[in-house]
Every structure is written in structure tokens, then in C-alpha cells.
Amino acid sequence: MSYHHDHALHNINTDEDTPNLYEGLVDTSEMMVEHIISDLKKKNVRMTPQRKAILTFMVDSHHHPTVEEIHKEMLKLYPNMSLATVYNNLNFFVEEGIIHEMKFSGITSRYDFMGHKHFHIICKECGKISDFVYSDLSFIKEPAQRQTGYEVLQTRLELYGICPECQAKRRRQKEVDEFKLDQ
């Protein structure tokens, strides 16, 4: 099941045949949360206030938080919530296909709401992760199938670069260095 949401960028496994179940149906994050809860209740899943709070946070999140960042935010609402509760609920949402656990080499796991098909670009300097949407990966899928004989079921794409903020820092540092040389 794929839940679609309007935030801009992620590194996810995409299944090109997964329908957007809520396209045109959900226009706010609150409505998205209610639709997901409704779907889970149909599966007889118990929705605790803590689980709903974690789900709401993830639907509203645009920055691919770590479990520790999610826990820190949840403590503002539920001061006694344990880190284990956050882990357990995230694992549940991952198993349900609602949230994706992103494991990048050398970076701790981050979590992403599976609101829409998207990919990620990661800054090599500060580690910031941004989402971008690109729907047609057939230019990779078709040659891979032809060359290997595999049936490609999903694609995963990560791009690495330097974010605009780090580029600006580099430019400023270069200007400072050039100024020092001129002195």
C-alpha cells in the first residue's frame, strides 16, 4: 500500500505499478492521517494516541528524521514515551509500507513518509537529505533487464552532491581565502 503526500524529495524503493490510493482524495496531512488510521482499523490494528502522534509527525515531517529526533519531538507530547515505543511503532509503520527506513552508508537510519514516489539527494558535506520527484526510470530498468535477464521489480536511487547552503559556505570561504591572499 502506498500513501501519497505532497512534500518534495526522498530515496525510496519505488514500485512503478503501485497505485496512488489517495490521489485527488486527500488534500491535508490531517486527512491523510485519518485515511491511514481508517485503513489500519479495517485491519483491526489498535491505534494508540502515541502511535497516532508518531504517524502525524511523520506525515508532516519533511526532513527525514532519525529515531532520536522523532523521540525528542514525541517527548514534548508524551514525556514518558520510551525510545523503544518509537522504534516499535516505526517498525510497525515500515512493515505496513507507510514509512520507509532509509539506510545510507555511513549515516544513521532516517525515516520517511511514503506519501509519493520520490528519490533522495544527499549532501556530501552536511548530510542533508532532500527529495526530488522523477517518475520514469525505464531508461535504467529496461537495459538492466535486457543485460541480466532479471525482472526488475523496483528501483532505488540515491544521488550525492553539495547542497545550496554548503555551496554558499564554500563560496564565502573562497572569498575569505582570496581576500587573505590579497592582504
Topology:
Blueprint: E1 13-14, H1 29-42, H2 49-60, H3 67-77, H4 83-96, E2 99-104, E3 107-113, E4 119-123, E5 129-132, H5 138-148, E6 155-156, E7 158-161, H6 164-182
Parallel strand pairs: 4-7
Antiparallel strand pairs: 1-6, 2-3, 4-5
Helix pairs in contact: 1-2, 2-3, 2-4, 3-4
Question: How does this structure look, described?
Answer:
By secondary structure, this protein is an alpha+beta fold. Helices cover 44% and strands 16% of the residues. The protein is built from six helices and seven strands; from the N terminus they run E-H-H-H-H-E-E-E-E-H-E-E-H. The chain has helices at 29-42, 49-60, 67-77, 83-96, 138-148, 164-182, and strands at 13-14, 99-104, 107-113, 119-123, 129-132, 155-156, 158-161. The strands form three sheets. Strands 5-4-7 form a three-stranded mixed beta sheet, with no helix packed on it. Strands 1-6 form a two-stranded antiparallel ribbon. Strands 2-3 form a two-stranded antiparallel ribbon. Strand 4 (119-123) and strand 5 form a beta hairpin. The longest helix is centred in the last third of the chain and has 19 residues, at 164-182. It starts with 12 loop residues before the first strand and ends with a helix.
As residue ranges, the low-confidence spans are 1-26
Percent helix, as a range, is 40-55%
- Main sheet, how many strands, which sense, barrel? 3 strands, mixed
| Overall shape | flat
Number of distinct helices: 6
Number of strands: 7
Mean pLDDT: 80
Q: How do the strands line up in the largest sheet?
A: 5-4-7
- Going by helix content, strand content and strand pairing, the class is alpha+beta
Distance between the first and last residues' Cα: 62 Å
User: Can you write the helix and strand succession as a string?
Assistant: EHHHHEEEEHEEH
Instruction: From the alpha carbons, calculate the radius of gyration and give it in angstroms.
Output: 20 Å
Instruction: Tell me the β content.
Output: 15-25%
